[in-house]
């Protein structure tokens, strides 16, 4: 590889590393906010009356059927016309959260459905209420089933944060673009950004594998 490319990548590294916490912050915020919302949507689709179930299904269908980039534009540029103006960070977090919640809801719903019906019947026979059965019996088992998909969602979310650069959030990708605008050398900064994304994803994958092993009986 050309020395000039390596040098430009090395010179861009401090700027990109300084923006990396914001990228991680976006991903973690969207995951932390999206998980309870996704759980709520999953429970609505499984147990709510038909009208609420249909609303939840429509939300999931809309999010899964439209590009995340369009959703970011709708939230950041569209909501002000309805009287709700958000900062770039607020708009980015909200769009990522809504997107993440829809996908997580499908993961959680499938995990809940994978728990044997006998587990629920045994809990009822012991006198547990429906809420207690869900909280103490079903969800802990579903969490073990859902863990691999949830980990993959977080890894994908880290990469999806690059899209908030279109609304001027100076995260990792936007930082690389700013360096390129100053140096007119695109390969090095983009390569450095790619390596940082790769390092983060690899680290999260390692943590995910260790959690899976710890939660596996006999692991």
UniProtKB/TrEMBL annotation:
Subcellular location(s) of the protein: Cell membrane
Domain ABC transmembrane type-1 residues, every copy: 20-208
PROSITE patterns, per the entry: ABC_TM1
GO cellular component, one term: ATP-binding cassette (ABC) transporter complex
Keywords linked to the UniProt accession: Amino-acid transport, Cell membrane, Membrane, Transmembrane, Transmembrane helix, Transport
CDD domains documented for this protein: TM_PBP2
Membrane topology: Multi-pass membrane protein
InterPro entries for the chain: AA_ABC_transptr_permease_3TM, ArtM/GltK/GlnP/TcyL/YhdX-like, MetI-like, MetI-like_sf
Any one Gene Ontology BP term: amino acid transport
Primary localization: membrane
Spans through the membrane: 22-44, 56-79
Molecular function GO labels: transmembrane transporter activity
Family: Belongs to the binding-protein-dependent transport system permease family.
Name by which UniProt lists this protein: Amino acid ABC transporter permease
UniProt source species: Deinococcus ruber
